[in-house]
Amino acid sequence: MLKIAFIHPDLGIGGAERLVVDAALGLQDFGHEVDIYTSHHDPNHCFEETKDGRLKVHNVVPPFPRAINGKFHILLAHLRQLHLTTYLLSPGAPRYDVFFVDQLSTCIPLLRSIGHARVVFYCHFPDKLLANGEFIEDPVVRAERNLLKGGLLKRIYRYPMDWLEEFTTRQADVILANSKFTGRVFKDHFPSIQQIPEVVYPGINIAAYEATEDSITDSDVAAILSDQPTLISLNRFEKKKNVALAVEAFARIRTQEPSASNLRLVLGGGYDPRLEDNMLTLYSLIDLVSKKHTLTYNVITPSSSPKAVKIPPLNTTPENPVVLFLLNFTTAQRTALLTSPSTIGLLYTPANEHFGIVPVEGMLCGVPVLACDSGGPVESIVDKPADERTGWLRVPDPEIWTEALREIVGMGDEERVQMRVRAKKRARELFGMEAMARGIEDALKEAVSMGKVRSRLMFWLLVTLGIVGLVLALIWV
Description:
Blueprint: E1 3-8, H1 15-29, E2 33-38, E3 56-59, H2 73-88, E4 98-102, H3 108-113, E5 118-123, H4 139-149, H5 152-169, E6 174-177, H6 180-189, E7 198-199, H7 213-216, H8 219-222, E8 230-234, H9 244-256, E9 264-269, H10 276-292, E10 297-300, E11 323-327, H11 331-339, E12 343-348, H12 357-364, E13 369-372, H13 377-380, E14 391-394, H14 398-409, H15 413-431, H16 433-448, H17 457-475
Parallel strand pairs: 1-2, 1-4, 2-3, 4-5, 5-6, 6-7, 8-9, 8-12, 9-11, 10-11, 12-13, 13-14
């Protein structure tokens, strides 16, 4: 049995958080002792498993904010993790055989040199490539976008941050990636790192997608279900997720296809009112739905967390809206949407997504999935040949997506059943939680087998002082 500590910066609701939760649960099932450490954990904005006692979560609140006037996010993220690392390395803190770190790598050199523990780092995607928005694979287009979005001061600010990311990531004993796509991008943009990331796909807790008797009487579930044929989109409310693509394609298919005139769209996802991007994205989508396409809508949150999100007065339609915005959905609500016989398709809108667990969730529940033809979904979804299809991969263009929706809406019962069987089989065989947990367990055991980290205290003390000095200097620039 291993004693394992997970370090994750913000334990909210998202794909990275879902992986951490499922990996921790899987490792516990294998008999390991697991603790999760984080700098932020809000009981009103988190997965149930992190607050119902199934997982041991330690919320170490830092003295630093997430941002200052909407800026310095990554700088402050480094400081928050250094604070968390200091707590973990304090004399009275528990000792662990190995650490599992994801998203931020700042802590890795300190855990190894001062804590003398091995570290496994899980790369969801290099942060340096997301500083100016969603990742663009074409280097010319990406460079042009970066010039437009990043001025000289920002480039000066990002340079040490990007160097720090590569330097600290390089110290990890084992590096994992969530897809072949991420692994390839990692190698291309971290040239000094010789390790080739091992791919461990995020897994699905199959039991969590099975409706229970309790969900039948759940008022939150009853509030979102409908007999109308429904398309769903499950994403955080962030601009880079491009949920507007789903709205545009949905509005077009309703007007162009008579059989789709009764379609309903549910836009569900994590929403954090602390984040300006979340707030601006939500309101831009509401404007798109109500003003451009004159569709009725409603905005709801689970009744189980009435204080989680305060929604200002809006011109909503509580009864049978065409578009339903579902903020911070519960596990029961997610399962109900994915397993409802009224759900005829799932729209996954991000381009160049690092992996994307949502398409796998859709396939596991037998829902036809429409996703962008880039990034992780290319590995999870089979588009061609048609007799092996588990979903559609299309260029993120509203007209092209409308054509794909026309195929989805027009599917016959037998065709839909055959796709459901293929999709479920693929999801269970390749993306089960046990396969993911086993892959992570193998990586953790590989790291531990390397033995205790030899002390290079003086060297790393100087490095640490240099890093802290650099961070403080940037704060006061």
